[in-house]
Amino acid sequence: MATVNMDRLLQACVEQGASDIHITVGRPPIFRIHGRLRSLETKVLDPDDTVALMKSITPERNQQELQEEGGTDFGFAFGDAARFRVSVFKQKGNVAMVLRLIPSRIMSFEEIGLPKIVTALCRRPRGLFLVTGPTGSGKTTTLATMINYINENVDRHIVTIEDPIEYYHTHKKSIINQREVGVDVPSFNEALRRVLRMDPDVILVGELRDLETIEAAIRAAETGHLVFSTLHTTSAAGTITRIIDVFPVNQQDQIRVQLSSNLIAVLSQALCPLATGKGRIAAYEFMVVTPAIANLIRENKTYRIDSSIQTGKKLGMQLLDEHLWQLFDQGKITLEEMLDKARQPGALYDKARAKVATKAKVKAGVKTGLEKELEDIGPVLRT
């Protein structure tokens, strides 16, 4: 395939609303649309095709890294239409790629369904705000919305440290400087070491990857900066446990004290395909660190955080499973999707069974689609 075909692929991705393009030997190019994989009706790619497609968009520096390390990541702009984040890697000796489409328009809090208190938290002068969830759950989009809100509404100096830069922000009411790891600075650790000399008010760290980065992020929050970052955890309590467990045992009590004082909120999210098959919706677990939750963190009682979240609804707090149930009950997501993303699928399965049982019996004993689905899924959950 020639370079022009890559341009056509990128154009088709934008026009069809795909979130990702998968390029690998032995299959035609594949789009992910509304969370589902769809093969394009083009030729099956051979090794020369994937190498040509890779070379058409990959900078020399990244091509060298691919040869030396077996993989590389970078971002690039497709004209004015969109930006893409690219992961190039070797598999079975051949080149493969995944391109993630980064929307050019940053969504509002209302569009992504965040509670209103998040806007107040974004105006806080200091603290650590974590957005967590598995890969592809929309963490970067949520953070871009928060940074854009600050940029439009408050005069701050915002410094982002990303690998690679995904959403490009322009200066608005705030000044914003975006540093790309591997291009502008060699590592997250080096960027964090230098960022405090740049008179920042707000710092975005793309990901808390290791002990040094976590330590630096907590220190930045402690010294009077608002710090945003991400982790690959699936619950608020699990996020706190993960951070503390990274540290040696003799430092863990100190980290608990620092976290209890500096953590302001944890937003854990999962992205679910809509039941209609078109579009996706985010399910959230949201925890604001109240004095009661700060006390639980300090005393190593994270197992009691879930019940504190349940009693904090007036602050917009909610558990992930509660939100998944709401989305299912409103018909927005399927039973299978709810159970797939749930932390306690057994409990939600029982709740769905109870809902069916309380409804009026269907005449002539005909079972509803939901009843049949529950019967099919039940044995799987019990194994």
Sheet of most strands:
7 strands, mixed
Helical segment count: 16
Strand order of the largest sheet: 9-8-10-11-7-12-13
What average pLDDT do the residues reach? 90
What is the total tally of β strands? 13
Task: Report the portion of residues in β strands.
Answer: 15-25%
Order of helices and strands: HEEEHHEEEHHEHEEHEHEHHEEHHHHHH
Coarse morphology: globular
Termini separation (Å)? 48 Å
Helix content: 40-55%
Q: Taking Cα atoms only, what radius of gyration do you get, to the nearest Å?
A: 23 Å
- Name the quaternary structure: single chain
Q: List low-confidence stretches.
A: none
Given helix and strand content, the structural type is alpha/beta
Description of the molecule:
The protein is of the alpha/beta class and 383 residues long. The protein is built from 16 helices and 13 strands. The strands form 2 sheets. The protein has a 7-stranded mixed β-sheet with strand order 9-8-10-11-7-12-13, with helices on both faces. Helix 7 (188-195) runs parallel beside helix 8 (211-222) and helix 10 packs antiparallel against helix 11 (291-298). The protein is globular and about 60 Å long. It starts with a helix and ends with a helix.
